[in-house]
Amino acid sequence: MNNEIKQILNQKLTLKEIYVTGDSNHIKIIAIGDIFKSINQVKRQQIIYAPLINMITEKKIHALSITTYTIKEWEKNNKNNLG
Question: Is the Cα torsion angle 53, 55, 59, 65 positive or negative in sign?
Answer without folding.
Answer: negative
